[in-house]
Amino acid sequence: MLLSKLPFAFRTLYRHRLYTLLNLGGLAIGLAVSIIVALYLHGEFTYDEHWENHEDIYRVNSRFDLNGSEELYGGSGYGLAPLLAEHYKQVEASTHLFHLENSIFFRTDSLRQYEDQVAIADSNFFRVFRTPFIAGSPEDALVQPFSIVVSSTFADRYFGSSEVLGKKINTSNYEYTITGVIADLPENLHHSFQVLISEPPAIRDSNDLAVSLWQVSHYTFVKLKPDSDPYVLEAGFDTFFDKYMAGLADIVQGSYQIELQEIASLHFKTNAKYDRPGGRLAYVYGFAGIGLLILILAIINYVNMATARSLKRIREAAMRKVLGASRVDIRWLILSESVLMSFIALLLAFALVEVFTAILPFNNAIGKKLFLNFGSFPELLPLSVILALLVGLISGSYPAISLARVSPLDAFTNKKGIQRRNSLPRKFLVGFQVCVSVAVVITAIFMYRQMEFIKNRNLGFNSDHVLVINVQDSTSIYRIQDLATNFRRSSLVESVTVGASSTGSGTFRSLFELEEEATRNFRRISLDFLGVGPQYLETMEIPLLAGRGFRQEDLGDSLHPKVIVNRALVRDMHWERPLGKKIRSAFDESGDATLEAEVIGVCDDFNAQSLHNRMAPLILTLHQDNFRVLQIKVSPDQMYAALDDLERRWTAMVPDVPFQFSFLNKDLLQMYDEEMRQSRLILYLTIIAILISLLGFVGLASFTTGLRTKEIAIRNVLGAGSWDLVNLIYRELVSVILAGVIIATPLSIFITWQWLQNFAYRTSVEPLIIIFTVLLTLVIGYGIVAIHSLTVSRRNSIQNLV
To answer: Is 367 in contact with 673 (CB distance < 8 Å)?
Structure first.
């Protein structure tokens, strides 16, 4: 029945080309957004599912309880993997992985370049994670020291071919032999890598492995035998604990428990410390929800436009009934038009998706690699066809039912019957469009304000004009103090400091014993600490509240170590006289502290971590052996000259290592990449939602004006002004806009407030933004009504009365 009506549908759509183009545009955009959302969701919800037998692979998380303070870590000690395989018969294989956070400098005869996504793994890695090998053997690829396994893309980039087995490649410190080439791994991996390096040779006995269990350094994975229950391992961990950990547990006054987490769940369940960045279900569901709303808006837009055009098809439907057509025939005719329109829109949607993902910089903006690939996502094509069919049937149902109910007598005398019946549902649909659009606009504006707030917030230190140089090779690390001294000699440099990490990128955590104010006893607690060098406070412009900062001569005084604490630590410890207080650390196997430092200064609180976390008690330590980062404040007026001078000084001292730097303020913004991507996505979807909603409002204005064409003509003849007629029509529609706005306002505030809970520091919800959005919506609505009303009122009144 539906196919027999297609020729008539083609002729009708061709005859009304402008109407067809408008509806095709709305439906194509809605379907394109739905396809992009489907690609995005497929990538998000299939993280780590490409691994063979992924349902049997678990990451072992560590839950520590030290002095009543319980913390969950995604990592564990390096000894956990081999000891678990030895202790539990349910474990088929175990491995551990260590990610190198800094970029690694690789060099061959043809290319020298820094690379990310480099990790160190033990020889059992490919027993747990089955990976397709292009060259080499997974069984022995990481057995020998200084072995390296690379991806095919990496091999092509450095050697121009994947046939690189046995070839040598150098880093800043070592020479490695390529023992394997693997196929490129998909993007959606929680623990992603493109280069795996074998573990350095080390002789470790069972005692060393047991001691390492109280540390967090590696990520441990186990592959269980088929039908093994992971909860059995967790429930029976007491025997493991008693065998390997009980001795030290009494000394450190703590307990330890493992938690096995399915590898496919890591991406969204990243609530543990020491974990890789993961996704957030709230963002994914929000993106999917907005995509669905845009599709609904496109359907509503089609219904509005089709119903508005039905005013001109009432007599056509009546004439078909007179000639013998039944209600069913007319319904099938209208449905055939909408289904045909939907499938044509689907073809256009595929083209739009290809343009956005392959040609326009859409993927760069959202930080994903989305492509229209039916091979990797075979369900996409049938799902798209089903979606197009459903959209066509849903979109055409209301106009089909409305026109099929038209009485030929009413149609040839007046149009009031269908006109009045259509009015209320159309107002409801457009009110829904207004509600969605206003809610999305308000939410997008608040997201933008929050990201601007983050960019401009006072972090407690000054990141402007600060260069960051991550030192990685052994030569540069050995000479890092000489490099800092050389840089300080430059007249274009204001100050230089060294440290274990860049400011604001995060802290380390360890056990400390702090001297109490009244009793002079020591309290053992877990605290954040940061390894810094001389002139740190001066370089970062962190206010010093009491005492002094670190000096160059403090580096050589290993017998009397010194620390600086922040205001939050002084407040939590209730110290009235913090200077001179003792802080102990570095506990030995018997639980005794091997290091006692003196507090020489108190600095103001600053954000040592991202703004997702509040300022916490912090200890600044001075450990020269851990220095890996140079932070250099340069003269803002001579930035380029300073960079040239620093590069010359670097090259003169370490000529084999390229000079690579970054700006601290830009590094800090990268910590909010996920939020910025979500903000950009919301912005794009907001623009699309507004465009579709405008089309829907145009349809309602056209429909309402069409209902009152004769009334407008009569009022025009009786002397009514054009703007009086505009106000007359607008009064009927303003209730629709206000209803949508009233519902949208609390909804948008709720959504915004929930999103802002991700930040420890957040902007306020400004009522003026809501008021501005509401007023803008009313003005746009008035403008659309004015265009339609003025067009009708300025036509010849005799034509309107015919």
So the answer is: yes
